[in-house]
Amino acid sequence: YENVGVRYRGHSALDADSDNRFGLKVSVNQYVPGTEFHGLHNLNFMGTEGDFSLLRERLVQGVMRDAGVPAPRVTHVKLWVNDVFYGVMPFPEEQDDDPYLDAHFDDDNGYLYKINGYCEGDGDFLYKGDNVDKYDGRYEAKADTPEEAYTTHLMPFLDCADDYSPSEFDTDNDTAMETCIESWIDVPEWLAEIAVDVAVLDVDGLQGTGQNFMLYWDPSIERFVVYPWDKDSVFRANNAESPGDDSIWRTFPFWKGEDNNLPPAFPEDLRRAYADEYCATVLDVAALTSAETLGAKLETARALLDGFILDDPLYGDEYNWEYEVESLLGEITTRNAQIIDEAEICSPL
Q1: Which of 111-120, 131-140, 248-257 has the lowest mean pLDDT?
Q2: Residue range 190-225, pLDDT digits in tens
Q3: Cβ proximity of 59 and 196 under 8 Å
Q4: Candidate from 87-91, 108-112, 282-286, 342-346 with smallest mean pLDDT
Q5: Do residues 116 and 211 touch, judged by C-beta distance below 8 A?
Q6: What are the φ/ψ torsions at residue 30 (nearest 5 degrees)?
Q7: Residue 135 neighbours by CB under 8 Å, 6+ apart
Q8: Are the CB atoms for 207 and 268 separated by under 8 Å?
């Protein structure tokens, strides 16, 4: 494959002094339209981004798929750059183009939006009127999604989500709930995505900072489906330090101030309005993230990578890979106990 585009990827690549190994992104169709590599247009070689176990992305995207969320498949690769071994790297499929939709959905002719986060802005689920320019910076159209889809699908959904409040949907107002939210999103699928985010303590996704996720209008069900990308910051015990908390009802990133860019209200409203369904979903997800279930998958992945890590230039004296893997297993065990305790109580804040 010649004439391809290559760039660094990942937030740590912005810091030249970072100890992380920078990720790489290869666009095989950048200069020769139509070129594919085993059905892919883009190749994602994930850097460490602080995950020196190299396993978080692979494990959690697998949990997402087991929970019914159409999340990216992830494997690992050995990468050489200019005949020099660059290292072992997680390799998730690109989540924002046509090959992905074709692989994960019955109908790939729907409308796809990418919510980037960081410099590009989070998905706030706020309705800002009928000017498309108010939305395309946060909700980036992908996979040939036409501009008119903003006005026919995305903006009406956001109008509903912005007006949505659990106080509106009490036992006397079920009809309003059914005709609004349930006509725009696949509620059980959204609850599953949020429940996994909570179970793995990911404040970097939909229900925390409101970033790193995709919205797809699936024509086969005529609803928006949500699915994540970039799950390498999960199971970190310090993610939800003060001023927030790490409950199943709300998580809050420690790097944001108390009044600075609060998490989007809509995912919080959704889980409270469907509290019973949400708590049941959290318990289902808890079974998928237990030390027994997820720990077994961790051990399988550990055995797969074990022989290759020995030659990885990043490990050895500087980073102890076995220690990182054991730490991750401990984080999984601790978090699983926390969410089971709270989900069994099932009491919104």
Answers
A1: 248-257
A2: 999 999 999 999 888 898 888 999 999 999 999 999
A3: no
A4: 342-346
A5: yes
A6: -60, -40
A7: 128, 150, 154, 155, 158
A8: yes
Total residues found in the chain within this entry: 349
- Residue 298, pLDDT > 90, answer yes
Cα 29 to Cα 25, 113, 214, distances in angstroms: 12, 20, 22
Burial class (CB in 10 A: 0-12, 13-18, 19+), 140: middle
How high is the pLDDT of residue 243?
41
Buried/exposed 226-260: b ≥16 CB within 10 Å, e otherwise: bbbbbbbbbbbeebbeeebebbbbbbbbeebeeee
Tokens encoding 80: 């050489």
Residue 183 pLDDT: 93
Amino acid at 25: K
Give the tokens for residue 53: 């176990």
> How would you list the strands of the sheet with 5-9, edge to edge?
5-9, 23-27, 42-45
